Amino acid sequence: MAALANEPAKLLSNEPVGPRLFLMELESPYIARTILPGQFVHMRVNQMADHILRRPFSVYRTDPGEGRVVILYQVVGYGTDYLTGLSPEADPAIELVGPVGRPWGARTGGERADAGRVLLVAGGVGAAPLYLLAQQLVERGAKVDMVMGAQTRSALVTLSDYRERLGIGVECATDDGTYGERGFCTGLASRRLDGGCASDGAPYDLVCCCGPEPLMRIVSDMAAEVGVACQVSMERRMACGVGACLSCVVDTAAGKRRACVDGPVFDADEVVWR
Ligand SMILES: Cc1cc2nc3c(=O)[nH]c(=O)nc-3n(C[C@H](O)[C@H](O)[C@H](O)COP(=O)(O)OP(=O)(O)OC[C@H]3O[C@@H](n4cnc5c(N)ncnc54)[C@H](O)[C@@H]3O)c2cc1C
Ligand code: FES
Protein backbone atom coordinates (compact mmCIF):
# COMPACT_ATOMS: atom_id res chain seq x y z
CA MET A 1 0.00 0.00 0.00
CA ALA A 2 1.15 3.52 -0.76
CA ALA A 3 2.84 5.58 1.95
CA LEU A 4 0.79 8.14 3.84
CA ALA A 5 1.32 11.67 2.54
CA ASN A 6 0.09 15.13 3.42
CA GLU A 7 -0.90 16.70 0.13
CA PRO A 8 -2.11 20.27 -0.46
CA ALA A 9 -5.25 19.96 -2.57
CA LYS A 10 -6.64 22.61 -4.88
CA LEU A 11 -10.42 23.00 -4.78
CA LEU A 12 -11.88 22.72 -8.29
CA SER A 13 -15.60 22.62 -7.55
CA ASN A 14 -17.99 22.23 -4.63
CA GLU A 15 -21.62 21.86 -5.60
CA PRO A 16 -24.87 20.84 -3.88
CA VAL A 17 -26.25 17.66 -5.48
CA GLY A 18 -29.05 16.56 -3.15
CA PRO A 19 -30.56 17.12 0.30
CA ARG A 20 -27.54 18.11 2.50
CA LEU A 21 -25.29 16.41 -0.08
CA PHE A 22 -22.36 18.03 -1.88
CA LEU A 23 -19.82 16.87 -4.45
CA MET A 24 -16.35 18.35 -4.02
CA GLU A 25 -13.71 17.96 -6.71
CA LEU A 26 -10.07 18.46 -5.74
CA GLU A 27 -6.76 18.39 -7.55
CA SER A 28 -4.72 15.95 -5.49
CA PRO A 29 -2.46 13.93 -7.80
CA TYR A 30 -0.83 11.66 -5.21
CA ILE A 31 -4.15 10.63 -3.64
CA ALA A 32 -5.76 10.20 -7.06
CA ARG A 33 -2.96 7.89 -8.14
CA THR A 34 -2.56 5.82 -4.99
CA ILE A 35 -5.85 5.50 -3.13
CA LEU A 36 -7.36 2.01 -3.03
CA PRO A 37 -11.11 1.31 -2.84
CA GLY A 38 -12.20 1.56 0.81
CA GLN A 39 -9.31 3.76 1.94
CA PHE A 40 -10.05 7.34 2.95
CA VAL A 41 -8.50 10.77 3.33
CA HIS A 42 -8.27 12.99 6.38
CA MET A 43 -9.16 16.54 5.34
CA ARG A 44 -8.06 19.75 6.95
CA VAL A 45 -9.10 23.24 5.92
CA ASN A 46 -6.58 25.66 7.35
CA GLN A 47 -9.08 28.50 7.74
CA MET A 48 -10.99 26.33 10.26
CA ALA A 49 -8.57 27.53 12.94
CA ASP A 50 -11.06 27.04 15.75
CA HIS A 51 -11.59 23.41 14.69
CA ILE A 52 -8.24 21.72 14.49
CA LEU A 53 -9.30 18.13 13.98
CA ARG A 54 -9.24 16.72 10.51
CA ARG A 55 -12.38 15.13 9.09
CA PRO A 56 -12.31 11.69 7.41
CA PHE A 57 -13.93 11.23 3.99
CA SER A 58 -13.95 8.42 1.48
CA VAL A 59 -12.83 9.19 -2.02
CA TYR A 60 -15.88 8.65 -4.20
CA ARG A 61 -14.33 8.86 -7.70
CA THR A 62 -10.86 9.46 -9.04
CA ASP A 63 -9.32 10.62 -12.29
CA PRO A 64 -5.69 9.50 -11.86
CA GLY A 65 -4.68 10.91 -15.27
CA GLU A 66 -5.88 14.41 -14.38
CA GLY A 67 -4.83 14.04 -10.72
CA ARG A 68 -8.36 14.65 -9.46
CA VAL A 69 -10.48 13.17 -6.70
CA VAL A 70 -14.17 13.61 -5.96
CA ILE A 71 -15.61 13.52 -2.46
CA LEU A 72 -19.32 13.11 -1.79
CA TYR A 73 -20.18 14.57 1.61
CA GLN A 74 -23.25 14.96 3.72
CA VAL A 75 -23.69 17.97 5.96
CA VAL A 76 -24.06 16.77 9.55
CA GLY A 77 -22.26 19.29 11.76
CA TYR A 78 -19.76 22.13 12.05
CA GLY A 79 -17.02 20.81 9.78
CA THR A 80 -19.17 19.64 6.91
CA ASP A 81 -21.30 22.79 7.14
CA TYR A 82 -18.09 24.84 6.89
CA LEU A 83 -17.10 22.90 3.76
CA THR A 84 -20.28 23.96 1.97
CA GLY A 85 -19.08 27.60 2.01
CA LEU A 86 -15.77 26.88 0.24
CA SER A 87 -15.39 28.03 -3.36
CA PRO A 88 -12.58 27.57 -5.90
CA GLU A 89 -12.42 31.39 -6.36
CA ALA A 90 -11.41 31.87 -2.72
CA ASP A 91 -8.68 29.23 -3.19
CA PRO A 92 -8.97 27.76 0.34
CA ALA A 93 -5.94 26.00 1.80
CA ILE A 94 -7.03 22.35 1.93
CA GLU A 95 -4.77 19.44 2.87
CA LEU A 96 -5.53 15.78 2.44
CA VAL A 97 -3.67 13.18 4.47
CA GLY A 98 -3.90 9.81 2.81
CA PRO A 99 -4.37 7.22 1.65
CA VAL A 100 -5.49 6.04 5.11
CA GLY A 101 -6.76 2.64 6.24
CA ARG A 102 -7.23 -0.87 4.97
CA PRO A 103 -9.10 -1.29 1.68
CA TRP A 104 -11.93 -3.59 0.69
CA GLY A 105 -10.72 -7.10 0.00
CA ALA A 106 -7.65 -6.89 2.24
CA ARG A 107 -9.05 -9.73 4.29
CA THR A 108 -11.15 -12.79 3.41
CA GLY A 109 -12.96 -11.49 0.34
CA GLY A 110 -9.92 -10.34 -1.62
CA GLU A 111 -9.31 -13.11 -4.06
CA ARG A 112 -12.94 -14.02 -4.49
CA ALA A 113 -13.94 -10.41 -5.12
CA ASP A 114 -11.62 -10.23 -8.11
CA ALA A 115 -13.52 -12.59 -10.33
CA GLY A 116 -16.62 -13.66 -8.46
CA ARG A 117 -20.14 -12.47 -7.80
CA VAL A 118 -20.34 -9.48 -5.50
CA LEU A 119 -23.33 -7.77 -3.93
CA LEU A 120 -22.84 -4.16 -2.85
CA VAL A 121 -25.21 -2.74 -0.24
CA ALA A 122 -25.22 1.03 0.35
CA GLY A 123 -27.24 3.07 2.80
CA GLY A 124 -27.31 6.83 2.19
CA VAL A 125 -23.87 8.39 1.77
CA GLY A 126 -22.50 4.84 2.28
CA ALA A 127 -22.65 4.66 -1.51
CA ALA A 128 -19.51 6.85 -1.64
CA PRO A 129 -16.88 4.30 -0.44
CA LEU A 130 -18.27 1.59 -2.74
CA TYR A 131 -17.86 3.28 -6.13
CA LEU A 132 -14.10 2.73 -6.56
CA LEU A 133 -14.59 -0.86 -5.46
CA ALA A 134 -17.39 -1.36 -7.98
CA GLN A 135 -15.24 0.16 -10.72
CA GLN A 136 -12.32 -2.14 -9.85
CA LEU A 137 -14.56 -5.20 -9.73
CA VAL A 138 -16.14 -4.41 -13.11
CA GLU A 139 -12.68 -3.89 -14.64
CA ARG A 140 -11.61 -7.29 -13.29
CA GLY A 141 -14.63 -9.06 -14.77
CA ALA A 142 -16.63 -9.65 -11.58
CA LYS A 143 -20.42 -9.85 -11.70
CA VAL A 144 -21.62 -6.96 -9.57
CA ASP A 145 -25.12 -6.15 -8.31
CA MET A 146 -26.07 -3.33 -5.98
CA VAL A 147 -28.79 -2.51 -3.52
CA MET A 148 -29.08 1.15 -2.54
CA GLY A 149 -31.20 2.81 0.12
CA ALA A 150 -31.88 6.49 0.76
CA GLN A 151 -34.43 8.63 2.57
CA THR A 152 -35.90 10.00 -0.64
CA ARG A 153 -35.43 9.96 -4.41
CA SER A 154 -33.38 13.18 -4.57
CA ALA A 155 -30.81 11.65 -2.21
CA LEU A 156 -29.99 8.87 -4.70
CA VAL A 157 -27.28 11.07 -6.22
CA THR A 158 -24.85 8.27 -7.09
CA LEU A 159 -27.38 6.08 -8.88
CA SER A 160 -26.62 7.24 -12.42
CA ASP A 161 -22.87 6.86 -11.87
CA TYR A 162 -23.30 3.25 -10.84
CA ARG A 163 -25.84 2.46 -13.55
CA GLU A 164 -24.54 4.48 -16.47
CA ARG A 165 -20.78 4.82 -15.92
CA LEU A 166 -20.31 1.27 -14.61
CA GLY A 167 -23.33 -0.53 -16.06
CA ILE A 168 -24.22 -2.13 -12.74
CA GLY A 169 -27.73 -3.38 -11.95
CA VAL A 170 -28.92 -1.32 -8.98
CA GLU A 171 -32.12 -1.90 -7.01
CA CYS A 172 -33.32 0.97 -4.84
CA ALA A 173 -35.43 1.55 -1.78
CA THR A 174 -36.47 4.89 -0.34
CA ASP A 175 -37.88 5.50 3.13
CA ASP A 176 -40.70 7.63 1.67
CA GLY A 177 -41.39 5.44 -1.37
CA THR A 178 -40.56 8.18 -3.90
CA TYR A 179 -38.31 5.80 -5.85
CA GLY A 180 -38.01 2.03 -5.88
CA GLU A 181 -39.40 0.01 -3.02
CA ARG A 182 -40.78 1.84 0.02
CA GLY A 183 -38.78 1.18 3.19
CA PHE A 184 -35.24 0.14 3.99
CA CYS A 185 -32.96 -1.57 1.51
CA THR A 186 -32.54 -4.59 3.80
CA GLY A 187 -35.59 -6.25 2.18
CA LEU A 188 -33.97 -5.91 -1.24
CA ALA A 189 -30.67 -7.23 0.09
CA SER A 190 -32.40 -10.25 1.63
CA ARG A 191 -34.17 -11.14 -1.63
CA ARG A 192 -30.95 -10.69 -3.62
CA LEU A 193 -29.06 -12.96 -1.26
CA ASP A 194 -31.81 -15.60 -1.52
CA GLY A 195 -32.14 -15.25 -5.30
CA GLY A 196 -28.42 -15.14 -6.10
CA CYS A 197 -26.55 -13.05 -8.62
CA ALA A 198 -28.87 -11.26 -11.07
CA SER A 199 -26.99 -12.36 -14.17
CA ASP A 200 -26.91 -16.10 -13.48
CA GLY A 201 -28.73 -16.84 -10.22
CA ALA A 202 -25.58 -18.36 -8.65
CA PRO A 203 -24.79 -17.50 -5.01
CA TYR A 204 -22.70 -14.43 -4.28
CA ASP A 205 -19.08 -14.83 -3.18
CA LEU A 206 -18.95 -11.60 -1.23
CA VAL A 207 -21.16 -8.84 0.14
CA CYS A 208 -19.66 -5.37 0.74
CA CYS A 209 -21.76 -2.98 2.79
CA CYS A 210 -21.46 0.62 3.90
CA GLY A 211 -24.09 2.71 5.64
CA PRO A 212 -25.55 3.24 9.10
CA GLU A 213 -24.35 0.59 11.58
CA PRO A 214 -27.83 -0.94 12.09
CA LEU A 215 -27.97 -1.59 8.33
CA MET A 216 -24.49 -3.12 8.29
CA ARG A 217 -25.36 -5.31 11.25
CA ILE A 218 -28.53 -6.67 9.58
CA VAL A 219 -26.73 -7.26 6.27
CA SER A 220 -23.90 -8.96 8.13
CA ASP A 221 -26.40 -11.32 9.84
CA MET A 222 -28.17 -12.06 6.55
CA ALA A 223 -24.90 -12.84 4.77
CA ALA A 224 -23.86 -15.14 7.63
CA GLU A 225 -27.20 -16.98 7.41
CA VAL A 226 -26.66 -17.85 3.76
CA GLY A 227 -22.94 -18.49 4.25
CA VAL A 228 -21.61 -15.58 2.16
CA ALA A 229 -18.50 -13.64 3.21
CA CYS A 230 -19.28 -10.03 4.10
CA GLN A 231 -17.20 -6.92 4.62
CA VAL A 232 -18.31 -3.64 6.20
CA SER A 233 -16.80 -0.16 6.38
CA MET A 234 -16.96 1.12 9.97
CA GLU A 235 -17.22 4.91 9.88
CA ARG A 236 -16.43 5.68 13.50
CA ARG A 237 -15.76 9.20 14.74
CA MET A 238 -12.05 9.86 14.44
CA ALA A 239 -9.66 12.31 16.06
CA CYS A 240 -6.00 11.58 15.29
CA GLY A 241 -6.55 9.27 12.29
CA VAL A 242 -3.19 7.58 12.83
CA GLY A 243 -3.97 4.99 15.48
CA ALA A 244 -2.86 6.95 18.57
CA CYS A 245 -5.97 8.28 20.31
CA LEU A 246 -8.28 5.22 20.32
CA SER A 247 -11.35 7.38 19.64
CA CYS A 248 -12.35 5.09 16.79
CA VAL A 249 -12.14 1.62 18.34
CA VAL A 250 -14.32 -1.20 17.08
CA ASP A 251 -14.94 -4.27 19.25
CA THR A 252 -13.96 -7.37 17.36
CA ALA A 253 -13.58 -11.05 18.13
CA ALA A 254 -9.84 -10.37 18.33
CA GLY A 255 -10.28 -7.48 20.78
CA LYS A 256 -10.43 -3.72 20.26
CA ARG A 257 -9.29 -2.57 16.80
CA ARG A 258 -8.88 0.96 15.50
CA ALA A 259 -11.12 1.84 12.54
CA CYS A 260 -8.56 4.35 11.23
CA VAL A 261 -5.60 2.02 10.82
CA ASP A 262 -6.97 -1.51 11.34
CA GLY A 263 -10.09 -0.63 9.27
CA PRO A 264 -12.25 1.04 8.17
CA VAL A 265 -13.05 -2.18 6.29
CA PHE A 266 -13.56 -5.20 8.54
CA ASP A 267 -14.79 -8.70 7.93
CA ALA A 268 -18.36 -8.50 9.23
CA ASP A 269 -18.10 -11.76 11.16
CA GLU A 270 -15.26 -10.42 13.30
CA VAL A 271 -17.20 -7.31 14.41
CA VAL A 272 -18.90 -7.46 17.82
CA TRP A 273 -21.88 -5.20 17.06
CA ARG A 274 -22.99 -2.78 19.79
C1 LIG B 1 -13.55 6.18 7.18
C2 LIG B 1 -14.62 7.23 7.07
C3 LIG B 1 -15.08 7.60 5.82
C4 LIG B 1 -16.10 8.56 5.72
N1 LIG B 1 -16.55 8.90 4.47
C5 LIG B 1 -17.52 9.83 4.36
C6 LIG B 1 -17.97 10.23 3.07
O1 LIG B 1 -17.50 9.77 2.03
N2 LIG B 1 -18.96 11.17 3.03
C7 LIG B 1 -19.50 11.71 4.17
O2 LIG B 1 -20.41 12.53 4.06
N3 LIG B 1 -19.09 11.35 5.38
C8 LIG B 1 -18.11 10.45 5.51
N4 LIG B 1 -17.68 10.10 6.76
C9 LIG B 1 -18.29 10.76 7.94
C10 LIG B 1 -17.66 12.15 8.12
O3 LIG B 1 -16.31 11.99 8.52
C11 LIG B 1 -18.41 12.90 9.22
O4 LIG B 1 -19.73 13.14 8.81
C12 LIG B 1 -17.74 14.24 9.50
O5 LIG B 1 -16.47 14.04 10.07
C13 LIG B 1 -18.59 15.05 10.45
O6 LIG B 1 -17.90 16.27 10.70
P1 LIG B 1 -18.69 17.54 11.25
O7 LIG B 1 -17.68 18.49 11.80
O8 LIG B 1 -19.63 18.06 10.21
O9 LIG B 1 -19.59 16.91 12.37
P2 LIG B 1 -19.45 17.13 13.95
O10 LIG B 1 -19.84 18.55 14.28
O11 LIG B 1 -18.15 16.62 14.46
O12 LIG B 1 -20.59 16.13 14.41
C14 LIG B 1 -21.96 16.39 14.02
C15 LIG B 1 -22.76 15.12 13.96
O13 LIG B 1 -22.17 14.20 13.01
C16 LIG B 1 -21.99 12.94 13.58
N5 LIG B 1 -20.73 12.38 13.09
C17 LIG B 1 -19.49 12.88 13.30
N6 LIG B 1 -18.55 12.07 12.78
C18 LIG B 1 -19.20 11.03 12.23
C19 LIG B 1 -18.79 9.85 11.55
N7 LIG B 1 -17.50 9.52 11.38
N8 LIG B 1 -19.75 9.01 11.09
C20 LIG B 1 -21.04 9.31 11.30
N9 LIG B 1 -21.49 10.39 11.94
C21 LIG B 1 -20.59 11.24 12.40
C22 LIG B 1 -21.90 13.20 15.06
O14 LIG B 1 -22.30 12.08 15.81
C23 LIG B 1 -22.82 14.35 15.26
O15 LIG B 1 -24.15 13.93 15.44
C24 LIG B 1 -16.66 9.15 6.89
C25 LIG B 1 -16.19 8.77 8.15
C26 LIG B 1 -15.19 7.82 8.24
C27 LIG B 1 -14.69 7.43 9.59
S1 FES C 1 -8.69 8.14 15.19
FE1 FES C 1 -7.16 8.05 16.71
S2 FES C 1 -6.86 5.92 16.92
FE2 FES C 1 -8.24 6.04 15.27
UniProtKB/TrEMBL annotation:
Annotated GO biological process: pyrimidine nucleotide biosynthetic process
Cofactor: [2Fe-2S] cluster; FAD
SUPFAM superfamilies found in the cross-reference section: Ferredoxin reductase-like, C-terminal NADP-linked domain, Riboflavin synthase domain-like
Keywords: 2Fe-2S, Electron transport, FAD, Flavoprotein, Iron, Iron-sulfur, Metal-binding, Transport
Family (UniProt): Belongs to the PyrK family.
Binding site for FAD: R55, P56, F57, S58, L72, Y73, Q74, G79, T80
Ranges in a coiled coil: none
CC cofactor note: Binds 1 [2Fe-2S] cluster per subunit.
GO-annotated molecular function: 2 iron, 2 sulfur cluster binding; flavin adenine dinucleotide binding; metal ion binding; oxidoreductase activity
InterPro entries in alphabetical order: Cyt_c3_hydrogenase_gsu, Dihydroorotate_DH_ele_sf, Dihydroorotate_DH_Fe-S-bd, FAD-bd_FR_type, FNR_nucleotide-bd, PyrK_electron_transfer, Riboflavin_synthase-like_b-brl
Protein name (Swiss-Prot/TrEMBL): Oxidoreductase
Source species, domain of life: Bacteria
Span of domain FAD-binding FR-type: 4-106
Pfam families: DHODB_Fe-S_bind
Binding sites annotated in the UniProt record for [2Fe-2S] cluster: C240, C245, C248, C260
Source taxonomy: Bacteria, Bacillati, Actinomycetota, Coriobacteriia, Eggerthellales
